[in-house]
Design a protein that fits this description.
The protein has 103 residues and is of the alpha+beta class. Helices cover 32% and strands 34% of the residues. It contains three helices and six strands. Strands 1, 2, 3, 4, 5 and 6 form a six-stranded mixed sheet that branches. The longest helix is centred in the C-terminal third of the chain and has 13 residues. It is globular and about 40 Å long. The N and C termini lie far apart (33 Å).
């Protein structure tokens, strides 16, 4: 099983509709055109980082230097974009099925 398939299977079992997805904007480049986002969920009172799984599923680059999902561009909420893309993949094209909470 490849990384994308494994991550998608894991996230489909782990994340249900209306799950609160926590995003943290960890790094912004000097130019402001690149940033890294970390992604977490809370399960059974524990914080679980799912950043690398989300990167695999949505087809984004995992930035090993900053341990986050690399997002290019400016003038938008990168965390919202990541969560919306994840919702789109997990819920068959239906956006806004997950709740984003910024940290």
């Amino acid at each position: 099983m490849q990384a994308k398939e494994y991550s998608e299977k894991f996230l489909r079992e782990f994340i249900k509709r209306e799950t609160e997805i926590y995003t943290y904007l960890d790094h912004v480049s000097r130019s402001g055109m690149y940033r890294t986002v970390k992604v977490f969920v809370v399960r059974e009172g524990r914080i679980v980082e799912i950043t690398s799984h989300v990167a695999n599923v949505i087809g984004s680059r995992y930035d090993k230097r900053h341990y986050g999902i690399g997002v290019g561009g400016c003038g938008f909420d990168a965390g919202y974009d990541v969560v919306d893309s994840l919702s789109h993949v997990l819920f068959n094209g239906n956006p806004n099925k997950l709740k984003q909470i910024k940290l």
